[in-house]
Every structure is written in structure tokens, then in C-alpha cells.
Amino acid sequence: MTDRGPLAAVSPLDGRYARYTEPLVPYASERALMRARVEVEVEYLLALADLDATPLTVSDDQRAALRDLYDAFDDEDASVVKRLETEGYGEYSATNHDVKAIEYFIRLGMPDGLDADHWIHFGLTSEDVNNLAHRLLVKPAAEDVLVPELRAIRDTLVEMAHDYGDLAMLARTHGQPATPTTFGKEMAVYASRLGQAIARIERAADALSGKLAGASGTYAAHHAAYPDVDWPAFAREFVASLGLDHEPLTTQVNPCDDLEVLFDAVRGANNVLLDMDRDMWLYVSDRYLGQQTVEGETGSSTMPHKVNPIDFENSEGNLSKANSDLVFLGDYVTNSRLQRDLSDSTVKRNVGSAFAYCLIAYGKCQNGLAKVVPNEQVMAEELADTPEIIGEAVQTILRREGHDDAYEQVKKATRGKDVTIEDFRAMFAELDVSDDVRAELDALTPAGYTGLAAQLAEQA
């Protein structure tokens, strides 16, 4: 078989989009999972050595050598682990078991003078190792890869909110002309929502929990070997040493409710961006936003003039794919037949894929935001051409002045009709109001009717 480079990749994540997903390789690749499993097994071995009940003694130099097995884990090491699993290596036959291959890898790397082969994986089930290893990868993937990209998007939105806080534009509720807003205020809304979504992701990542309780979650093997050891306390301390909360009541598997919360939090951030992508696409379509051209870029294979909002479209598509995967993952990993079935094992290998689609989308979203420029002239013309939108202000001021039929009066004059600002002023001239109120009404303009939008934009 020829070497399968990016152009032969089955998935676009490792093909077309490989350059975008590279930051996730340390957390989402099979090599990364192998390394994390080695870390769990080594640290567990050292924790056993620290128990007074066990005769295992590991010197400082031996501890350093053991930790070097995962600190220095590289492609060659990963290849050895894979060979141990699939074809055998050295004195070991093929295990056809990925966690057992890790045990044999550590045996091969056992420091001189340390007779501890029989203590590796002592009393554990594979899921004790896997649930911890997965969380050692998922946690930094969310905190160190996804969150910084989301923060970069939020920073851009905050900057746009502040720069265009007083740039009036027509709002559209139900797709129809509505009370004006400002472009900056609308960007502030997305910045605020995204900030809250980021906080939810961080809380969820910080609350990831692990288990270490054996084949049925009862510590049976541990208790049989050393009945006087407080194994739940040992597990709690060990899991905490890995930076995770301890899950005390489990079957063989960690129930994974913590992962479902994280996936849902990421999906929440994605939903904010989906909403924004679609709005930005519509603003481009309405010519409220122009797009900076990229030298040499082709917008259409047949229409040379086209400058398409492809980054927002690409972001939308990848966010939708990511959300579909995140919903599936959250639903699936929280279920297991009785005390254990293996169907979740293959499913969990796709967490990295879901995060990869997120990462691609975030980058495309940033690209799209970097290209758009508000078209102030179009915004101003649309406002001037839609004077009926001051009707809300007119009827509200008249209500204040005691006009019981204010709403009906303005509705009769404007609904379904082409009106001008002069039509409004003619109506004002006939109203039974004071000169001060009439002057207040005459001063109303669509561009000036933005309420506290500018101040609100500053809150982003």
C-alpha cells in the first residue's frame, strides 16, 4: 500500500482540513490516547508504591525513569504499543487488546533494578484506565484549544461592538423593518452570549470526574488483596492527583454524565456562533456588510464579480456537523447495558472528531469577521427610506400624553402604506398636543431612534 497522505485521507479532518485540526493532535490522536494511558498506569503504580500496605518500593531515580515513559512518549513508542496489540513485539505475542498492550509497553521500559511487572495494572479493569485517560485528553482539548479560539472570536466581537456602537441600522423582526438598532449593539449581544457560553465550557471542563473502582465498581479485587486499605479514599486521592473530581459510585464504567455536560456546553457556544453566522450572511446579502477581497481568490467559477460569504457558510456547516456529533456523543456515552458493554469504546474515539469540526468552524468564523466592513451608506439609506419605523416612538409619546387611541391612530396612518417623514409631520401638525410635544415629535428620525443602543454596546 502506498503512503496515505492528506489527499488520500478518508476523513476531511485529516485531509482537506488537516492544517486546521493540527492543534488537537496532542489530545485527539490514537498516539495521544496511548500516552495518556501510560501516564495513568505509571502514576497508579507509583501510588501503589506509596501505600504502606504494599511491599513495592520505587526509588526517586526509578520514579523519574517511569514518568519518562509518558513524558517522552513519541511516535516510535506509539508504534511499539501498536505492534504489541496487533502483531506482537519482543517476547510478547499480539494482545488484541489496547490496554494490555500498554501494560506490556511499561514492562519493556521498566527501570533497571525494579521488579514491579506484577504491580502494573494491579486490581484494575481497562475502564479504570480508559476513563481517566480520556478525561486527561478531553479537559485540555477543551480548555487549551477550543476555549482560546472562542475567546479570540469574542474579543473581535467586543472590538466591533465598541467601534460601531453608534452606527445606526434598521432592525428586522420577523424579517420586516423594525425599531432601529446599532451594528455595534448587535455584535455586543453575540459577545455577551459567547462569553457566558465560554464560562459554561470552563466550568464543565473543570468538573470532569474519574473513577477507579474495578470491574463492577465495587473495589472487589483491591479489597480481596488488601482488605484493610481504604480503597475509596485511595481512589479519591489518586483521581484528584490527576486533576479530576472523583466519581465514587459507578459500575465498571464511569457514567459519563460529566462528559455530556461538557459536550452540551460546547454545543451551546456553537449555537451562538451558528446564530451569528446566519445573521452575518444575511447582513452581507442585504449589503449592510461589505467584504474585503483576497488577492487571487475566486468567488465563482462562472461569475467573476462574486465575493461570497464562504467563511460564514463554512463555519455554519462545520458547526452543524459538530453539534450533530456532540448530541450523539452526549446521548450515547451516558448509557451502558447493566454493568458494562463495549459499544461506548469506539464511540468515545470520535470525541476528537467533534472537537475538530468545532475548531475548523471557529477558524472560519474568525476569517469571516476579519473580512467584513459595515456599509454605512447602505444602512443610512435604508433607515431614511423606512420612516414608518418611528411609529412606535410616536404612539408611545402620545400614550404618555394621555391619548387613549394613540396606537390605533398611528396604525391607521402607517400600516401597509408608503409613508414619508413629511406625512408624519403633517399628522403632528394636526395633533392636539403642546408645542413642546410637537417639537419632540418633529425631531424624531429613523437614524436617531436607537434608544440606548450605543451605551449597551459599551457593555460588551
Automatic annotation (TrEMBL):
Residues 15-319 form the Fumarate lyase N-terminal domain. InterPro entries: Fumarase/histidase_N, Fumarate_lyase_CS, Fumarate_lyase_fam, Fumarate_lyase_N, L-Aspartase-like, PurB_bact, PurB_C. GO terms for molecular function: lyase activity. Gene3D superfamilies: Fumarase/aspartase (C-terminal domain), Fumarase/aspartase (Central domain), Fumarase/aspartase (N-terminal domain). It comes from the Archaea. Pathway: Purine metabolism; IMP biosynthesis via de novo pathway; 5-amino-1-(5-phospho-D-ribosyl)imidazole-4-carboxamide from 5-amino-1-(5-phospho-D-ribosyl)imidazole-4-carboxylate: step 2/2; Purine metabolism; AMP biosynthesis via de novo pathway; AMP from IMP: step 2/2. Its EC number is 4.3.2.2. Residues 336-450 form the Adenylosuccinate lyase PurB C-terminal domain. Coiled coil: none annotated. The keyword Lyase applies. Keywords: Lyase, Purine biosynthesis. PANTHER family: ADENYLOSUCCINATE LYASE. This is Adenylosuccinate lyase. The gene is purB.
